[in-house]
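Fill-in record for Alpha-and gamma-adaptin-binding protein p34.
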Amino acid sequence: MDCEGTIIISCDTLTPEDIICKILGVESLPESVASSSSVKGYAWSFKNKYYSSKINLYALEEKAELDSAFCDGIRAIIFYFDSQKQSSFDEVVSWLPFLKNINAEVQLLLCNNCLEENSNPALERKNILNWCVENQYELVELNPIPDSEEEDEEPFKSAKGYGRVIEALQSYTWANLVMEEEKASACAKEQTEENSATPSKDGCKTIKVEGQELDLEEKWLNNVLSGEDPGGESFEALFAKFASMKDRASGLNGDERKKYAEKVAIAFWRAMGGDEDEIEGLDSDE
């Protein structure tokens, strides 16, 4: 495999190639960079404010034993299924044994939308979400049903649909990413100041302070909440870590998720130089 990538599997009429076209933002696919009886690959180069990278998007069509070298380079898995068909969801589950040798840190389960109530209780939103939690997948609805009440309660909003798919893939720290000059300089300064930083299992970085391992994301949050300005780049630093914050929030339940979201919202507000009077009454220590 020339570079790292993601595999895309469809368990319904929407094909992996259709999904790849949406990610690439094209009407028709470019020439394949890899092709076999079961795998076709397409190069995707992307660039954001912080870094650029190039990965391959693989359309996986058939259940077959995958080459170990191929598996070693896969960092993301994307499934698509029809949330109204039990057979479609069962097909997703049937694929899992063929992917057991892949250590993917980004795992997305796509569907058009997921209903709170369904004629088939097994396909109700809460049960699909439970499966996602148990198998470490994120549910992404390509055309979510609007919920004004839920959106009003969200202290910050994230991308939806294919925008979330692209955001999740771009947020991963790919091995061949190239940092933008300004950001690379800031990262070098950060690592020098913190002595040693190592990637954790979930791709986030941790630092060792007096023998204790701390999450860099939590460190930045706490610094901003206490009134400190890390490196003079508080907002950009927090924004760069937004995806991992969102992932952490999705793993929390009830009051824990609300409190964590409040903490992030307060940190962003202060990092942007917001008026303290506007957040009076919010307790960031809880």
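KEY FINDING: The CA atoms of residues 63 and 259 lie 43 Å apart.
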